[in-house]
C-alpha cells in the first residue's frame, strides 16, 4: 500500500502519493473520476525507483477534500 500524504492549499486538504526515488521530480495529474492511485504501478515500479514521482488527488477526488467551487457541472453518464 502506498501511504497518503497531505498538503493544505488555500484552506483545502490535497492528498498526494510519492515514490521513494531521488531523481528528477515528475508530477502526475489524473483525469476526471480518478485519483492519484491511478499511477500506483509507476509509483512503486522501476520508474518510481529512479525518479521522485508525485501523484495528486485533485479536489473532489480520492482522499482530497471536496472541491470548494466547481466550475463545470458533472453530468451523469448513460
Describe this structure in words.
The protein is α+β, with helices and mostly antiparallel strands and 78 residues long. The protein has 2 helices and 4 strands. It has helices at 40-44, 46-50, and strands spanning 5-9, 12-18, 25-29, 52-56. The protein has a 4-stranded mixed beta sheet with strand order 1-2-4-3. The longest helix is centred in the middle third of the chain and has 5 residues, at 40-44. The radius of gyration is 14 Å and the shape is globular. The mean pLDDT is 91.
Brief summary of the model shown:
This protein has 78 residues and is α+β, with helices and mostly antiparallel strands. It has helices at residues 40-44, 46-50, and strands at 5-9, 12-18, 25-29, 52-56. The mean pLDDT is 91.
| Order of strands, widest sheet | 1-2-4-3
Low-confidence stretches: none
Oligomer: single chain
Distance between the termini: 33 Å
The radius of gyration is 14 Å
Q: Report the helical percentage.
A: 10-25%
DSSP strand (E) fraction? Answer: 25-35%
Please summarize the sheet with the most strands.
Answer: 4 strands, mixed
Average of the residue pLDDT scores: 91
Write down the secondary-structure element order: EEEHHE
Shape: globular
* Helix-strand category: alpha+beta
Number of helices: 2
Compute the number of strand runs.
4
Amino acid at each position: 500500500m502506498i501511504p497518503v500524504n497531505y498538503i493544505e492549499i488555500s484552506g483545502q486538504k490535497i492528498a498526494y502519493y510519492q515514490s521513494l526515488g531521488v531523481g528528477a521530480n515528475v508530477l502526475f495529474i489524473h483525469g476526471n473520476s480518478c485519483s492519484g492511485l491511478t499511477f500506483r504501478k509507476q509509483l512503486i515500479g522501476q520508474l518510481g525507483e529512479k525518479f521522485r514521482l508525485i501523484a495528486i488527488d485533485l479536489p473532489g477526488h480520492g482522499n482530497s477534500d471536496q472541491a470548494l467551487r466547481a466550475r463545470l457541472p458533472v453530468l451523469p453518464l448513460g
